[in-house]
Amino acid sequence: MLRSFAAAVIGLGFLATLLALPPDAADARSYRSHVSAKKKTYWARNKARHRAAIRARRNAVPAVAKQAATPPGQPLPPKRPLKLLTRADILGSDPARLERLGRRIIVGFQRFDEVRPLVEKGGIAGIFITDHNVRGRKADDVAKDIQSLQDIRKAQGLPRLIVAADQEGGYVSRLSPPLKQQPSLGTLVARLKNDEDREKAVRAYAEVQAQGLERLGVTMNFGPVVDLRLGTSRRNDGETQLFWRAIDSNPYLVAKVAGWYCDTLTKFDIICTLKHFPGLGRVARDTHVVTGEISATTAQLELSDWLPFRRLMGKPGIATMIGHVRVTAADKETPASYSGEVINSFIRARTEGDVLLITDDLGMGAVTRSKDGLGGAAVKSVNAGVDLLLLSDAALYYDTVMSALIEADSNNEIDQARQIQARERLSKYVFVDDSPPHAAPPQHAQQEPPHTPPAN
């Protein structure tokens, strides 16, 4: 009780600080800067507590959630896997199958020695490094740990591990420190008035970021955010905090900024990742906890939310992250991250080139609390044509996902044509040696007509 009261007092104090106009705030611009600085300080001080609370909410599945997942009168669907294998069982299973299924999975982890057995057995495609992997460490020491894993892969004759990071800049800068803290792309371009200045600033920004990522050994960055900033700073979307991460509300400007950014990263052989298709701009709920939905028509989405994705998806060196939200006009039941209708009708069939697709973290509540559950969603996702499954914590999620994939593969329930297609796409992004995959990437950014406000 006392702890709850103290938390409430702290929360009210933070709110009062945000609402209090500083004495030297002569105009709205300085006030916004004041609020932004206070917000940044607040989140920095309370980040660990907030993340722990969100993790607890993700993994807690209340009875009402279980009941609501299946319509009344219908039997509960069987949960995958029917039998959960131990880590020893998984790593001791058929090596060819383990490598074939494992090349679809990227895992986060607590310690490098924890993930080493997965690399030695070929049970993963890549690793995801984040704040707890680099906290209090020098960049060169982190790089040595990553290179030691790459050396294992090289000795095995397998493609390099994908080394993914979540270094957007601004609110989401998981590797700062040791990498330099940078503002978000939205903050960077907000004060610039013409495309010449914007392009120069974005390319310089991306080069600094790419140099830091390259020094660590990162080969894929989960950025840029190309969701549109359609809400206000007061939107209540939990940990998503999209207003502070989005570039702009103008889809043409977002496409250009993202194009300049990705051009620069690909010159360093770092895959950039557009996120989060089908867009979170219209989604008020926090998919870290529960699923959300987009009720706009597909015509509205094509003219606004999807325009930045359409401009850039399928270009060399650019991947796309699929979010856990339902597009009700396409699939009312299944989140986009494992919806065959969304992935094939609205991405594969309408995009030139091969689009490398990776899910948002399957450990989010939108998946773990769904009727399909974590294992079922993973199987549906690979069968729908997603190339890579992201698991933020190997200790929590890897055994469930791999047990489900092994079970489905044993029962001939894995779409083999999709497997072949995914392998071909991945071969264009990940290579056995360190030679560049292709010539210098083309300029992705394009000049666009004047902005038309998106449909609401």
UniProtKB/TrEMBL annotation:
One of its GO terms (biological process) is carbohydrate metabolic process. It catalyses: Hydrolysis of terminal non-reducing N-acetyl-D-hexosamine residues in N-acetyl-beta-D-hexosaminides. Gene3D superfamilies: Glycoside hydrolase, family 3, N-terminal domain. Residues 433-456 are annotated as: Disordered. Its EC number is 3.2.1.52. Belongs to the glycosyl hydrolase 3 family. This is beta-N-acetylhexosaminidase. It comes from Hyphomicrobium denitrificans (strain ATCC 51888 / DSM 1869 / NCIMB 11706 / TK 0415).
